[in-house]
Amino acid sequence: MCGYDPDAPVAAQWDLFLPLRLPTPNLRVVNQGATRWRYAKIRDDCRTALMIEKRRHRVPPASGRRAVLITRYFGGRERLMDKINWSSACKPLVDAMVLEKLLLDDSIEMVSDFYRQVRHAQLRGVGVRIQEVG
């Protein structure tokens, strides 16, 4: 979690949980041809899950810069992804967050994004912590 500061001043925070598994980008290295549709399906699945959680937690549309911590909960025989694979696997999720207006944009000026993975005995899915930062 390079750079994540849990003690930074935060105006508002929402913790969402998506019962999804984001596949390694090694399965969809290019966004063209048949793999393009795989990416779109993953993004749309993320968008649907975000829509549900956004309503449940009453998350307002982004009006400025936000920090996002995305956590992969995995276990059993699943393996830890390397840093680049995990952050790349989150691209469809981040794009879905922009489409759902949880982020204004995915540019470095509008979002501080951080990624981690946690082996868990029972929990499987993706945790998304969204913070309003000043």
Please, could you describe this protein's structure?
- The protein is of the alpha+beta class and 134 residues long.
- The chain has a single domain (12-132), classed as 60s Ribosomal Protein L30, Chain: A (2-Layer Sandwich).
- The chain is 30% helix and 25% strand.
- The chain has three helices and four strands; from the N terminus they run E-H-E-H-H-E-E.
- Strands 1-4-2-3 form a four-stranded mixed sheet, with helices on one face.
- Helix 1 packs across helix 3.
- The longest helix has 24 residues, at 34-57.
- The model has no long low-confidence stretch (mean pLDDT 89).
Defining traits:
single chain, 134 residues, alpha+beta, 60s Ribosomal Protein L30, Chain: A, 4-stranded mixed beta sheet, 3 helices, 25% strand
Query: Rough shape?
Result: globular
CATH level 1 name: Alpha Beta
Arrangement of strands in the largest sheet: 1-4-2-3
User: What is the assigned CATH homologous superfamily?
Assistant: Holliday junction resolvase RusA
Overall radius of gyration:
14 Å
Reading the helices and strands in chain order gives EHEHHEE
Q: Main β-sheet, in a few words?
A: 4 strands, mixed
CATH architecture: 2-Layer Sandwich
What number of domains? 1
Give a summary of the structure in a few sentences.
The protein is built from 3 helices and 4 strands, in the order βαβααββ. The chain is an alpha+beta fold and 134 residues long. Helix 1 (34-57) crosses helix 3.
Q: SSE layout and pairings?
A:
Blueprint: E1 12-18, H1 34-57, E2 66-74, H2 83-89, H3 91-99, E3 111-119, E4 125-132
Parallel strand pairs: 2-3
Antiparallel strand pairs: 1-4, 2-4
Helix pairs in contact: 1-3
